[in-house]
Amino acid sequence: MKTKNQPPRRRTPLQDTEASLGERTLDVSQQGSGPELSKGLRSRTTRAAGTRAEAGRRRQGPGGRRDNSVQRRLESNERERQRMHKLNNAFQALREAIPHVRADKKLSKIETLTLAKNYIKSLTATILTMSSSRFPDPAPGSKLYQHYHQQQQATGGALGDTEAQPQGHLQRYSTQIHSFREGS
DNA sequence: TAGGCCATCTGGTCCT
DNA sequence: AGGACCAGATGGCCTA
Questions:
Q1: Rounded CA–C1' distance between A173 and C10, in angstroms
Q2: What is the C-alpha to C-alpha distance for residues A117 and A167, in angstroms, rounded to an integer?
Q3: Basic residues compositional bias: what residue ranges (predicted)?
């Protein structure tokens, strides 16, 4: 799997407003921005958003939006940005909660979700195994057991197969970590 | 250069 | 009604 550690690509509200309104298309590369800006940061948003905004205005036809409509759209864009930032923060927190992942290789979102899912399954199976060794017959009232059993039934699995064994989950988990590291 | 990943904008729909 | 959520479109960055 390819790896990347891209810097956050954000723009200021001012840039956002300008780009969205299409007052001007900001191409930082033409404004003499030096290397003090990261490659990622100075790239995309300004130029790309400007062209997208222009495309949007073309869809709106001559004259563009009314002022209040534009204002509402800008506010909506800002809310959407904040929402996505919160989502990305949650992804980052999830990445950091998954052990045995090399810090210098950032997991993609899909990798993060997949690994987290299997890590949870691995832990769940481990807990069930430990508890069953202590109490050979899992307590029928155990919420964990009930939940796990329902999940297995819903996904077509069964507690008796290898999926239910912690080794199975751990193997899948470690295999995925390995494949992510290897870039496969 | 192609493909993967990502941020952002946008309009539609759902929810409170 | 307004905000949250969602998915499609767009285009930049990075790696192989």
A1: 35
A2: 15
A3: 1-12
